[in-house]
Design a protein that fits this description.
With 346 residues, the protein is α+β, with helices and mostly antiparallel strands. 40% of the residues lie in helices and 20% in strands. It contains 6 helices and 11 strands. The strands form 2 sheets. It has a 6-stranded antiparallel β-sheet with strand order 1-2-11-10-7-8. It has a 5-stranded antiparallel β-sheet with strand order 3-4-5-6-9, covered by helices on one side. The protein starts with a helix and ends in a 26-residue tail after the last strand.
Length: 346
């Protein structure tokens, strides 16, 4: 069926302009008013050619708009297959994820995330590929494909990260071989790999990515202050890849992962977005859930940037709802650590 429609559509796209052009030429050669030099004849002739030209322009515009819509549908379908929405509940954790594109017309970006329940615990990846478009989507696909296998195969979290590094190196080599491009040498990816074990222990390996925030009751703090490793790409990973222990994700607590577009978002005065303050406000809403936190943050980001963020933003919220049923009822499990402080930028 589709094989018949495509040639018919192509024939119509070529046939209509040809018919309009033939009509204009026929009028000019065979219609007596077109060969006269009077003012009225010139006006009529100009009107005919103006109508034909306008029809051609509108037809071309309609064809271009149709092709653009089709390209966006294909790009959106490709990204939805590569970057699958996580399920709302994974091994007792309540999950919510969302993306905010810097370009309203964009369907393809360089943000990546995944949540997988394995025999080693729930493993999570959040990353940000330098660049946009199809090259970035190819890198996202390579990294997510590697993570989805390594998360199950590798007992050690460091070996999972090592697999991601090899997948990126292999992907960039193939890109250089197929389409030589000097910018490939400058390609890098910030990646954060997180593991939530059966005892609720948190272990993280961070390669140049913003540290997540821990939301406990109404308290908000960075999960760690340790210096991250360099991003994947420019430099090889060190030999020792020991995950950073970050305590436990107690029942009712949430960990919020994000890409740097969230904290780098600016308003019209150039002021940065304060993610901790927005998280603290979200913690006072009831009922508190990952979906509600996600909606609150996205709304605050859109207000702060006047609906025009300058970079893509990805958010991933994980709440420990183990033993609380599907809703994961909240309850402060640790004392507050003080008032959240906004992130500073230089």
């Amino acid at each position: 069926m589709f094989g018949i429609r495509r040639p018919l559509r192509r024939a119509l796209s070529l046939g209509l302009p040809t018919a309009w052009g033939a009509l204009a030429i026929t009028y000019k050669l065979s219609c007596p008013p077109a060969r006269q030099d009077g003012l009225l004849a010139r006006i009529v002739t100009s009107a005919v050619f103006f109508a034909v030209g306008t029809g051609l322009i509108l037809h071309v515009r309609q064809a271009l708009v149709r092709e653009l819509k089709q390209a966006r549908r294909v790009a959106g379908a490709a990204q939805s297959v590569v970057l699958r929405p996580p399920p709302p509940r994974v091994d007792g954790l309540n999950v919510a994820a969302a993306q905010l594109s810097a370009d309203r017309g964009a369907s393809v970006g360089g943000d990546l995330y995944e949540v997988i329940a394995t025999e080693h615990g729930v493993r999570v990846v959040m990353g940000d590929v330098r660049g946009h478009g199809l090259p970035a989507l190819g890198t996202v696909a390579a990294l997510l494909g590697s993570f989805r296998e390594a998360a199950h195969d590798e007992h050690d979290l460091g070996r999972v990260l090592r697999r991601l590094e090899r997948a990126l190196e292999r992907h960039l080599r193939e890109r250089t071989r197929d389409t030589p491009d000097a910018t490939v040498a400058e390609e890098f990816v910030t990646v954060l790999v997180l593991e939530i074990r059966e005892d609720d222990g948190l272990h993280v390996l961070n390669c140049g990515h913003p540290w997540p925030y821990l939301l406990s009751g109404t308290s908000v703090r960075a999960l760690s202050r340790a210096d991250p490793l360099p991003p994947l790409g420019p430099f090889p990973l060190p030999v020792d890849l020991s995950p950073t222990p970050c305590g436990q994700l107690l029942r009712g607590e949430s960990v919020v992962l994000f890409t740097d577009g969230a904290e780098d978002a600016r308003d019209t005065r150039g002021r940065f977005f304060s993610l901790p303050e927005s998280l603290a406000k979200a913690a006072h809403d009831h009922p508190v859930s990952p979906q509600q936190i996600q909606r609150t943050l996205l709304a605050a980001l859109l207000r702060h940037t006047a609906g025009r963020p300058t970079d893509d933003i990805a958010l991933l919220v994980l709440e420990n709802g183990r033993g609380c049923g599907p809703s994961g009822a909240r309850g402060p499990a640790r004392p507050a650590t003080g008032h959240p402080q906004p992130t500073t930028h230089r």
